[in-house]
User: Fold this.
Amino acid sequence: MSRIDLSGLQKYAVLFILLALMALFSLASPYFLTARNLINIVTQNTYFIIVAVGLSFVMIGGGIDLSVGYQMSLVGVVTAMAMMVHHLPAWLAILIGIVLGTILGLINGLIVTSIRIFPLIATLATSAVFQGISYLVSKANTFRGYPEEFLFLTKGKVLGIPFDILLALLIAILVSIVYTETTFGYRLMALGGNEEAARLSGINTKRMKVSIYTICGFFTAIATMVMISKANTTNSSFGPGTEFIALTAAIVGGISFMGGEGNVLALAGGVFVLAVIGNGMQLAGWGTYAQYIVRGAILLGAVAFDEYQRSAKLTKQKRKG
Amino acid sequence: MSAEYVVEMKGICKRFGGVEALRNVDLELRRGEIMGIVGDNGAGKSTLMKVLSGAHMADEGEIYIDGHKVHIRNPLDAAHLGIGMIYQDLALFNNLDVSRNIFVGRELTRGPFGLFVDKKRMSDRASQLIRELRVDIKSPRMNVARMSGGQRQMVACARAIAFQSKVLIMDEPTAALGVTEASKLLGLIRNLKEMGLSILLITQRIPDVLAIADRVFVLKGGQRQDVLEVSRVTLDDVVTMIVKGKDRNGGPVPEVGHQSFG
Assistant:
């Protein structure tokens, strides 16, 4: 049985898919390919990109974090309450939120490395814990109407560009450099490729794993700031669901479910593929519920493609070796 | 302490739960020699070598490198002492190219705090190593997932050489190779010896050992049996020692000097 090797193509496949989808939806709806709608798609997805970038650290390292959704829920209500209940200045509330998010990530990392259970289960468990704490803290209240300084995150402009777009772009470029140019990035790919070999090569794999969950928590918290600033309201139900989109986007963007691979451009492409599908289906009048089905199918398809690539590589290697 | 030996291990004991994998094992490796480590399955060959490479920590015993007592707690400690190990499963990264595989964990860096990798320097050094080792790997950019078993062994060797290892431990390097590739690899091991390395070669293939080793270290049931001079023994002698051990009556194994032969 011959398998076609598409690994070179896969890196850019997501960008072709994106273009194809855009062509499809511009035929389906006259409103799709308008400047206003396209700008909308970008601004509505800045926080998904930031979460996906955070999650990519964990996934490239061979792990997974299902708790990012409820991390956002908890960080969101704590930040909002700092401003609305305790009347703290916006900068301090943001600082508190980001420190909290980083600590939540650190907790995930410590649990995954010390109890040595599957990160899938570990973070599913912490997700439930974060959910409970979020509702206990917020007492199921909604907090809205934030100070102007906080709304600057999404309504403000720097050099004519919305602040959150600039922020997402900055993070994407920074992380891209981390992955391709730094010692940390190189070791992260090694960790995800073969954890035992990484350990035997003298890499402190445990410390590295703790750090990637912590980094994920840090970026998730930043994304939370953007999310609640954009909505100008939050409660404990804001955030959950993001993990599914970030995870799917990452896999669509070529970040292997098994770790060791990934680049930020394709990752952003993955986020926009999902965004365009959501937006296009909405405009074409196919409704929200159909979108869930499509998203589920995309996740399955992307994982299957990833598996196919992996086994194609292995078959090739066995045949030669 | 005489520094006649590049490695000396004394009274090494290692238990895994209730299983005694190594019992009071002594090993002396001369500078620039190839020593075969042989024994049946479960004799403790890999465990003994992993103690030296830092993958396992011994429960008891001492290790001397160049006559100096050392503490090897992890693979990085061993690497700093110039001990490199090539594992049976190769411990390579299928997702990375040759150059990156060679430098994992000890990247050549630039910038403050070694923050950035120096790709060019790593790639150049990798090409140079490939040339020095005279192996057939076309480019340091090649992905190791697409390589043959022999080529992968050579990447693993290059990795060990890159860090000026003076002692190289190889765990069953020829086990998964065809005849041609295996003989190429044995040639490479000889090259390494010429380059001044001391080599510990774990293997089940006794003819390989007789072909390239200077001495053979025989383990049985986690205990040292004997060290044989290759020039003075036959295949049968080695096999007999592996199967029956030093003391054929099953009594306690006597202390054996490192100069003895079978």
In short: The first helix of chain B runs from residue 45 to 53. Residues 226 and 257 of chain B are 8 Å apart (CA to CA).
